[in-house]
Amino acid sequence: MEFILVTPQARPHVALIQLNRPKELNALNLQLMGEMRDALKELDDNDEVRAIIITGNERAFAAGADIKQMAGKTAIDMLNIDQFSTWDQIRKTKKPIIAAVSGFALGGGCELAMTCDMIVASETAQFGQPEIKIGVMPGAGGTQRLTKAIGKAKAMEMVLTGRFMSAAEAEKHGLINRVVPVELYLEEAFKLAGEVAQMSPVAAKLAKESVNRSFETNLDEGLHFERKNFYLCFASEDQTEGMNAFVEKRKPEFKGR
Ligand code: HXC
Q: Which of 13, 65, 134, 177 is most buried (CB neighbours < 10 A)?
């Protein structure tokens, strides 16, 4: 991997992926996104991993797709490159993913953070969809996920003016989970990931799938889907262990089976 650093056991059962193009503010070129897709697939298949953190560095989570790589492209080049099949595969990761964001999370960077399941940010984080300023618009989910997260009025403003949103504002409008001082954002993400990693990995996967389904379906279908996944939990050893541990007043030991 040239543009990301992967640590499968950064903490017990928690993997870390760090974007590593610091000079370019972690601009997301095609190779980086391909590496991200491959790393997530590997971590998803690794039974020791129960939660994944994606981070950048203090100055930038990611300042967007690589503008220099896109600048000369035609519509048909973009169609043939088909970068969004990579993003679709990232979206299909079954394990919970937390974005640990500091500095710029712009364009594709903001979209990558929103593709994750939760976002922990430093006080210096800035979220934005500034594509309009370079004559385009969001293409990796920005108009959809941002609108669902913060509502139409704020999303329209960000997408149509390219205005950045501070971490405090992003927290206020429900885009992110929490804001902490810059020296603590990664630690806070590890804390959150560590909590998730203590739960049943089977239940976590099914729960993530069910929450995400709410974006794609009506309430009746969503409730039906949830119910099936709830029943499926009862096929797991983790369900037996979790409930027995409660009755026996001890901590459960989940195995992901
Ligand atoms: C390529 C980028 C980049 C990007 C920054 N750099 N963002 N290179 N693509 N998205 C490079 C700069 O060219 C520069 O390299 C170096 O990183 C440092 O950036 P500066 O601009 O010198 O830093 P600063 O003055 O602090 O400004 C930071 C910034 C600005 C506000 C984040 O860099 C900026 O506006 N970047 C573009 C943000 C953007 O428009 N993102 C959306 C992209 S489109 P050199 O070598 O010149 O010193 C997009 C579409 C997604 O994301 C669709 C699907 C994937």
A: 65
> Which residues of the chain fall below pLDDT 50?
none
Distance 79 CA to ligand 1 centre (A): 23
**Alpha-carbon span 20 to 63, nearest angstrom:** 12
Task: Dig out the tokens for 96 from the structure.
Answer: 């919970």
- Domain encompassing residue 232: 201-247
Q: How far is C-alpha 80 from the geometric centre of its chain's CA atoms?
A: 26
How many domains are there within the chain? 2
Residues 113 and 231 in one domain: no
DSSP state string for 63-97: --B-HHHHTT--HHHHHHH-THHHHHHHHT--S-E
Does residue 139 contact residue 94 with C-beta atoms inside 8 Å?
no
Residues 123 and 25 grouped into a single domain: yes
Residue 65 is among the residues annotated as catalytic for this protein: yes
Closest ligand 1 atom number to CA of residue 59: 26
Residue nearest to atom 36 of ligand 1 (CA): 63
108 as an active site residue: the answer is: yes
- What global pTM score does this model have? 0.97
